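Crash report, auto-generated. Payload:
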Amino acid sequence: MIWRIDIYNKKKSSCPKIVSQVKDLGISKSFEVFQHLAYYLDCGLSKDDIEIIASKLLVDPIVQDYRISQRFFESRPSENQIIITYNPGVCDPIALSLKNAIKELNLTIQQGRTARVYEFSGLTSGEIKNIAPRVLFNPLIEHILDYEKVKDVVTLDEFSGRDYKFELVNVDILNASDTELVRISEQGCLSLSLDEMKVIRDYFKDLKRNPTDCELETIATLWSEHCGHKTFRGHITYKEKDTKGNVLKTEEITNLLKTTVMRATNEIAHKDCVSVFHDNSGIVKFDDKNNICFKVETHNHPSSLEPYGGASTGIGGVIRDILGTGGVAKPFASVDVFCFSPWNISYDDLPHGLLHPRRVIKGVTRGVRDYGNRMGIPTVAGAVLFDDRFLGNPLVYCGTLGIMPKEKSFKDPKVGDLVFVCGAKTGRDGIHGATFSSKELDEQTVALTSAVQIGNPIEEKKVMEALLRARDKDLINAITDCGAGGLSSAATELGEEHGIEVDLDKVPLKYRGLNYTEIWISESQERMVFFSSKEQVSELKEIFDEEDVELTAIGKVTGNKKLILNFNGNKVCDLDMDFIFRMPVSDKKAIWVDKDKVNPEFIELNDYSSAVTDILARPNIACKDWVVREYDHEVQAGSVIKPMQGISKIAIADASVVRPDLKSEKAVVIGMGINPYYSDVDPYWMAAASIEESLRNVVASGGRMDKTYILDNFCWGSPQDEEVLGTLVRAAKACYDFSVYYGVPFISGKDSLYNEYMVKGKHISIPGTLLISAMSVVDSWAKTMTADFKSAGDLVYVIGITKKELGSSEYYRMLQIIGADVPKVDIKTSKNILLKTSELIDKGIINACHDVSDGGLASALAEMSIGGDMGANIDLNNLAFEQGMCDGEKLFSESQSRFVVTVNPENCKKLERVINGIDFSCIGETTKDKRLNIKGSAGKIIVELDAAEMRSAWMKTFDNFR
Amino acid sequence: MKPKVLVVRTAGTNCDKESAFAFETAGADVNLRHINYLKKTRDFSGYNIICLPGGFSYGDDLGSGKILALEIVMRLKEALREFIGRGGLIIGICNGFQVLVKTGILPDLDFTQKVTLTFNDSMRFEDRWVNMSVSSESIWLKGLPEKIQLPIAHGEGKFYSSQDILAEIEKNGQVALRYISEDSCDVIYPYNPNGSINNIAGITDKTGRVLGLMPHPERFVLKHHSPFWQKADVVPFGKIFFENAVNYFK
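Recovered output after restart:
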């Protein structure tokens, strides 16, 4: 029987946020909308019992009331009311908590479900139906309850009568022609090429049998772009052409990853690198007791379909990467970088099938918020960038850092170990294709639903606590997380060395009806796989029981180097590990064609005050407090430099600083570098600038180059397009060149390709976007630095030289110009500038340090002024610059290798002694009067702004998001 | 003898380790225990101080602190009555404060819910530093200056009650901490970050031994926790809370 409990606020009030979103759709008339929650309970309980549940568990008696009824609807609802609930099979975390909590009252229910009830006044039912999927719910995961369909339904069990009856499926490939092989791959959504299918056919010819569906799926998963990184590890024929089309060089690249990013790390051979490009994240030394690790992932495609679920499972996934590093690491900080489309596009101009950027932005930021905050991991650094090309394909980078005792840095799987799965149960989540047959549901919806998932952070939090306790008792020999490919990739990768045998029928399921292959490849969230010895089972069980985490032994480590899977005693998979991990090498072509680009003539203005405020209001530069404050960046109490701080509490930090272990004085500095716009001119210099920016950010906050490590995350378009792949190769080459140049090794990385979408029959590819994430270990948290002006009368220095480099700069893009002269990193000076700036901080000579990046010197000075709530008098005549530059170019050039620092006049000599030999200039001093005055070359004031004006320009852009 | 502190944790507790660190630094002997363990033992006899730390117990899925509050009421009421009766100290921080009001331990130790902490007026989770005035004689607050700063980080921190209950709490001097503005402007958002009535940030029982507060004192026990330690000398106000409790038993 279904009971329904509606929970109302005593004080009924309209939801202003929904009203304003509806108004954005072009509905101008005035109306109100009221929202409340409803719980459905499927159980045999009496009304008195339901009263107990409602009054003791569901209602806050001070501000809420409740109402009990039966069935989905007591009677036909009025036309101005709609009820929204999850689609079958979609994780409903609140319902799971509810079911468990009810046990505390000594009552039980079979199943629960939550729903949101909306009541409108002032809109027609047609208008409500029209706006609902655009504002109130996402059809991929939710639907409106249809009175006619559910009025007689008496159970919440959508899976009754759908029990699975075992039947082994073999796929005939031995007799298949090439065309049939391609068809088999396409129909099974295997994404295997003909060449790969042929290799598989040959393998099974030797075995004299056909593969099972499960075997094919396993191979497809491990050979996928996602798990196998075919493009980066494949063979590429690379050509470079000049602007006239002449071939400058041709190169055969055997393995892009090994010849660029990994080669740099090998050549640098940093003594503190512990485990790089090997485990789920890169591990380096922290101190004598502990190591730290860092991984950044992307979750772009899921976030474009369902921003909230996609982003939350993105952060959930990367946290599991850290838990699955070595013998379990403890996450201590997270980072996130988002690339969105500008949100001012009208709904009428929005291409069919795409979500409005406003919705994507809100969904993604909230998804990360709700998951990250509940995990108790501070989200400390990041960036938000905007470009039109991210409209159908936003980028969502999520990263996490972890710490572990140094002796827990490696996996040690042993023959005879048991294979455990722990955490959430397995459902159909993330299974490609629609194997889920249901007559009631639209086929297409189901197919899409299974691609999108909702995270359940509380489950992962419990898993984390249980694993850390088990680790500290030495109960775990080897561990990895279930990510893409689910058990099929996790268990197989962990079992590669020795071989494993798994009984799929032992895997705990969310609901009935899953076949053996679905169980094996399901991507249900919040699961980990690990190996432990038999002797440790009871101790493990004790910990996992207390933490309320499901723990199941599903198999064993065999030593026969095979992957064997059984279902109720039937063998469904029998593959050689050697074959699974011998992925065929793909062949691709890449070409880089230099294009003719021109520099526009720079139009010099008499006054740049409004140009400065316009730059501050640009979405890339404007204040992102609305994101930062929604993330708990102080939990774990390790914060040394917060993402927003200073006396104004809105001073932005170049990098964040965190102490992962409060017993150690050491700290970790975390900074990011990203600038996809420079890709439009030259991806080589884009990559160089991104690397330098990440290092500048780290250095400006007190990090040291010799203890800094970086990660690469490439998000690119389709590698099947020769020119797109050419830009990727070019960026990867810069990664090698500059990593070696700085002596800063890559320790981990990831690529996400095929970031493109169709609009009106036209392919739109994102700009080649490389995120560089840097972390640096510093000996003392006290020797770190922030960017805001500290005291009046300090002298303002610019370290480095300003050049005429405005190509793809924030200022040019504001004027809708690309230009030619993209900022380049000068290898004669860059490293020295970074080292000397570090030295200034280490010796305690300076009071503030800010790197110069987007928006140039103008935005750097303005940010320091806003942050310190203090002014400065600046004279551009004193600036060190390349000949032939006008004032506007000096203000907005984005030349690399520059810092603005402030120094007490007493320390001037010390400062100049340290930076002797590199370009620097003293351009002015800080003032009490909260005004930024900049004098131009004609001796005239060209910028005159008070801190309040700058602050308001910088704040207003995102007013609607606060 | 070092005073014994019990830090209670459950699924979704976040601030247990830093709360334990704050008590240890202040000189206490700290045990971290899962609620499932305590539900079996039902015994607080070895402890002087109980701390309910911050976090999202059970994801706050049925309202903040609701499920943990129910567990405490169902299983630990008698043990807690005994603990309170013999003069033990209790602090509930953020989610712990939500648990204290939803169990009805605050404001009157009678296990009857009279006040609540509900969704912020902004309808958003927010992490920010706030200014507060200290307005009670509670032993937890001894030696604090009139005006202090601490960080808050919550989505459901709006203190709310009927006018009668509010008047009672005010009359008894049970308001421990109140959000204040800078200078002397009105205490509007973001100074009052959540819309709490009478700008209430924390309350005590009538004895002052049980304190519940939304801000996080355990996040300001070290100099570098301050958002502006690079610019000015700072006093880690949060540290004083923990030292007060520990010294009370010395």
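Post-recovery validation: Chain A touches chain B through 61 residues (CB under 8 Å).
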